[in-house]
Amino acid sequence: MTQEVYSICFMCTVRCPIRVLVDNDDVTWIEGNPHVPGIDGALCAKGSAGLALLHDTERPQHPMIRTGDRGAGQWRQASWDEALDYVADKLKAVVAQYGPQSVVFGERTNLNTHISKTFMKALGSPNHFTHDALCKGSVNTACRSLTGYVDPQIGIDYGNTKHIILYGRNIFESLEIKAINNLMKARSKGAKITYIDPRYTVTASKADRYWQIRPGTDLALNYALINVILNEELLDMAFAVRWIKDHRQELAALKEFVKSYTPEWAEKETGIPAKEIIELAREASAVKPAVIFHFGYRGAHHPNEIYLRRSILILNALMGSLEAPGGLFFKKGLKAVGRQDVGKYVDQDFPKITVPRFDGSGGSRFPIADASHGNPQMLAHAILHEDPYPIKALFINRFEPLQSIADSNNTRRALEKLDLIVAIDINFSEIAWMSDVILPESTYLERGDSIQVVSGLKPQLYRRQPAVSPRYDTKPGWWILKELARRLDIGHYFPYETIEDIWNFQLAPVGVKLSDFDKKGFVTLAEEPIWWDREKGIKFNTPSGKFEITSALMENAGFPSFIPYEPLPAPPPGQFRLLVGRTATHTHVSTQNNLYLNEVCPENELWINTAQAQKLGIKPGDLVEVKSAVGSGRLRAKVTDFIHPEAVFMLHGFGKTVPAQTRVYRKGADDSALQENISDMVGGSPAYDHTLVQVRPLA
Ligand SMILES: Nc1nc2c(c(=O)[nH]1)N[C@H]1C(S)=C(S)[C@@H](COP(=O)(O)OP(=O)(O)OC[C@H]3O[C@@H](n4cnc5c(=O)[nH]c(N)nc54)[C@H](O)[C@@H]3O)O[C@H]1N2
Ligand SMILES: Nc1nc2c(c(=O)[nH]1)N[C@H]1C(S)=C(S)[C@@H](COP(=O)(O)OP(=O)(O)OC[C@H]3O[C@@H](n4cnc5c(=O)[nH]c(N)nc54)[C@H](O)[C@@H]3O)O[C@H]1N2
Ligand code: SF4
Ligand SMILES: [Mo]
C-alpha cells in the first residue's frame, strides 16, 4: 500500500515542504506539499532528483578511515563503533595538547545547528562557524546596521508587489519555489520586474526592464537613484517622518551627499542611460510602498559590498516599503503569537569560554560581522599562521570548505597541516576525500531532523521525518554527534535517544503535539497574517527604535555610514572580472554528480563576450584556460553577446577532483580555485566577484 509522508526537501537549503509517496520502504514519488500555499505541490528539478540521491551508488555507504596519504583515496571500511572511537581518541589527544579552541567545527546552517553548537560549547571551543558569511555576510550586517534585524528576519512580500528591482538576484534560476510562485502571481496581476546584471539570465528574460550594468558599479546606480528620489521628492514622506531616525537632518545630509552623483554621472560609470535611471525612480515611486528593492544575496560581491547592500535597503526606506504589503516585512516568530520558542539544546548552561574565535569574527578582524556565524574565509590563514593560535582538528558537516571558500589551493595547503579532519557528508565531496574519517550521514529521505520554525507573516512549524529506512550503513547527524559526545564524556548535554525525543523536547514549550503535524505536515500558529501598525507599531531593533541611516552599529565601530563612490577600475586589456553564480538544476557544489541533474547540466562553460572572444581568437566550444593570481582552470567557451565585455562568467561547483564521483570527475573548472580570498572587512562577505582573470584559447 502507498504511504504518504510529509517532510522537508534538502536537495538545497531552501527546505521546501514536500509530500513523499512510499511503497515497500522505497520512494516512488516526491512533490511539493500541496497543502502549503505558495508551494501548491510544486518542486524544482533538484527536488525531484532526490530519488537519484537516495539510490546513488556513488555515495559513501559506511564509515571509512583513511589508510593512504591525505586525498589519495585509500580507505578501510569501519563499523560505527570503530570509527567513532578512532575520532574520539584523536580528538582527546588534540584537546589535551593544544586546548579545545584548536578544534573548529564548520557547517552549513541546518535544522540541527543547535546540536552542533551544543557539541562545541560542551567541548569548550568558541570555533563553530556556518556558511552564512560566505553567502550573505554583508547583507546580514547591512540589515542589522539599518533595522537591527538580520536578513533572515526580513521577509519579502512577493505576491503583492507592484514592482521588484533585482540586482543580480537571479531569482528564476537561483530559486526558491514559494518566492517565484508568488512573484509569478504578482506578475499576472501586472507587477513589473527590473533586472540588473552584467549577464543576461533567465530572470532577465522574464523582466520588463533589463540593464546590462558594468560589473561592480551598482553603488553608482543607487547613489543616482537616491539623488533623483530626493531631488524630485519622490519619497514616502509620511514613513520617513515617522520611522527614519532624525529624519530632517538625515535626509538633508543624504541629499547633500548624493548631490554630485547625478544620473548623468552614473550613466558614465554604469553604462545605464541617465533617462532610464530617472524613469525607474519615478516608476518605483508611483507604486510605493508596494515596491521591493531586493537586497540580494550573491551578485556584486566586492570589498565595499556593505555599502551597496545598505544603499538598497535605504531605497526601500525612502519608498516606505518596510512593513508594507508588496514590500518588505519583519518576520513574526512564535513570541508574536504568544508562544514560547522551540527548545534548543544549545540553551543549556555550559562552562564559560573565554578564548576569542579563530576568525576574529565579532572581534579583532571583523568587528561587526555576525559572530554567531563566524567568517570561514579565515580558516586557511588561521591554520597556516597559527593566528591567533594553533588549529589542529577540523569537523565538517554539510559544508565544503574546498569549493565554498575562495582560493581552494591555499585551503588545501592549510588542511594538510591538521592532525585530524572529520567529514560528515552524504557525498564523496572534496573535503570528504581529504579527510581522515568519513562519517556518512543518511540522506534527508532516510532521516528525521530537528523541528523547523518558519517565521513570517504567519509563523509555522515544519518537520522532516524519515520517508524510508537508510539504504546503506549511514546515520543521522544528531546521532553521530551524540555518540561522539558520549565518548568524550560530554554525553549528558545530549539528553535524547531518538528523533521523537528531540521533537518532544523542542515542542514542549510551544504547546504543539507531534500529532498536530499528521494531517498536513505542518502547523500554522496564526490564522491571519500579522502586520505591525505602520503608524505606531514597527519595532525596529536599533538603539533608537527607528531606521538608522547613520548607523550606531557602524559608527561605534569606527566605520563611516557612507563612503564616497570609488570607481572600480576597468580590467586591463585581455583581463576580465570573474563572475560566478548558480543554475536552476544544481545546488552549489552538491549535486553535480547526481545521476539526473548531471544529465541536464554535466559541466560548466565560460561565458565570454563575442567581441572579446574574437579578439582572443576564441570560438564557441573552444577549450580555454582561465588564470588568476592564485589558480587556473580549463573549460569550454560559451561565446555570447549576453555578457558584459568586462566580465566572464562560470557556474559555481564544477572542476571536481574526486575520482569516486565518476560522472563529474574533472569536468569544467572550479571557481574557488580562481577566486582570490579578499573580503569586505566591514560587512563580512568574501568579495567573490572581484578577481581578475586572463583567458586564452588552448589549441
Ligand atoms: N538552483 C539553485 N537555487 C538556489 C541555490 C542553488 O544552489 N541552486 N542556492 C540558494 C542560495 S544559498 C543563494 S545565496 C541564492 C543565490 O541567489 P543569487 O544571489 O541570485 O545568486 P547567483 O546565482 O550567484 O547569481 C548572481 C548573479 O549576480 C550577477 N552579478 C555579478 N556581478 C554583478 C554586479 O556587479 N552587479 C549585478 N547587478 N549583478 C552581478 C551574476 O552575473 C549572477 O547572474 O540562491 C538560492 N537558490
Ligand atoms: N567559490 C564560491 N564559493 C561560494 C559560493 C560561490 O558562488 N562560489 N557561494 C556561496 C554560497 S551563496 C553558499 S550558500 C555557500 C554554500 O556552501 P556549501 O554549504 O559548502 O555548499 P552546498 O553545496 O550547499 O553543500 C556542501 C556539502 O554539503 C553536503 N551535503 C548535502 N546534503 C547533506 C546532508 O543531508 N548531510 C550532510 N552531512 N551533508 C550534506 C554536500 O555533499 C556537500 O559536500 O557557498 C558559498 N561559497
Ligand atoms: S528549491 Fe528545490 S531543491 Fe531546494 S528545497 Fe525547494 S524543491 Fe528542494
Ligand atoms: Mo547562499
Brief descriptors of the model:
699 residues; alpha/beta; Rossmann fold; Dimethylsulfoxide Reductase, domain 2; Barwin-like endoglucanases; 3 domains; seven-stranded mixed beta sheet; six-stranded mixed beta barrel; 25 strands; globular; binds ligand MGD; binds iron/sulfur cluster; binds molybdenum atom
What Rg is obtained from the alpha carbons, in whole angstroms? Answer: 25 Å
Largest sheet: 7 strands, mixed
- Reported by name, the CATH topology of the largest domain is Rossmann fold
Helix count from the secondary structure assignment: 23
The CATH architecture designation of the largest domain is 3-Layer(aba) Sandwich
The overall pLDDT, averaged over residues, is 97
β-strand number = 25
Which structural class do the helices and strands define? alpha/beta
Binned, the helix content reads 25-40%
Strand order of the largest sheet: 5-4-16-15-14-6-7
**What ligands are attached or bound here?**
ligand MGD, iron/sulfur cluster, molybdenum atom
CATH level-1 class of the largest domain: Alpha Beta
What portion of the residues fall into strands of 2 or more residues? 15-25%
Unreliable sequence segments: none
Number of domains: 3
First-to-last CA distance: 59 Å
Task: Note the overall shape.
Answer: globular
Notes on the protein architecture:
This protein is of the alpha/beta class and 699 residues long. It has three domains: 256 residues, Rossmann fold (3-Layer(aba) Sandwich), CATH 3.40.50; 195 residues, 3-Layer(aba) Sandwich (Dimethylsulfoxide Reductase, domain 2), CATH 3.40.228.10; 123 residues, Barwin-like endoglucanases. It contains 23 helices and 25 strands. The strands form six sheets. It has a seven-stranded mixed sheet. A six-stranded mixed barrel has the order 20-24-21-23-22-25. The longest helix has 19 residues. It is globular, with a radius of gyration of 25 Å. Molybdenum atom binds next to loops.
